[in-house]
Amino acid sequence: MKQMITGWLAAGLVMAGAAYGASGREAGKTVGHATGSVGHGVAKMYHEAAKGVHKTIAKNTHNSHRRAYHMRKARNQRHAAHVQARESHQEMRRARQHAR
Questions:
Q1: What is the tens place of the pLDDT at every residue in 20-48?
Q2: pTM for the whole thing?
Q3: Which of 2, 33, 38, 39 is the most exposed place for a label (fewest CB within 10 A)?
Q4: Does residue 95 contact residue 41 with C-beta atoms inside 8 Å?
């Protein structure tokens, strides 16, 4: 997980470095989108961790209602993680477009 965070931050810095070749306004857009991408990546990791916590709770409970509740919460967290991953990729794409 630490390597993923480091990777996202490094990608953001590379995109920010690429922004120096663009005009002032485009450089700001590139940096903004790159840092937004990093933020969405971190949010994705949070939702993945929350999904795991809910699945663990569900597997260790003996109450069928609690199990269903936590599996539903895990499903919702999984969906949120996918949404954040998609947003992160879109932000990186926008950053690359502004860096050109």
A1: 555 667 777 777 777 888 888 889 999 99
A2: 0.71
A3: 2
A4: no
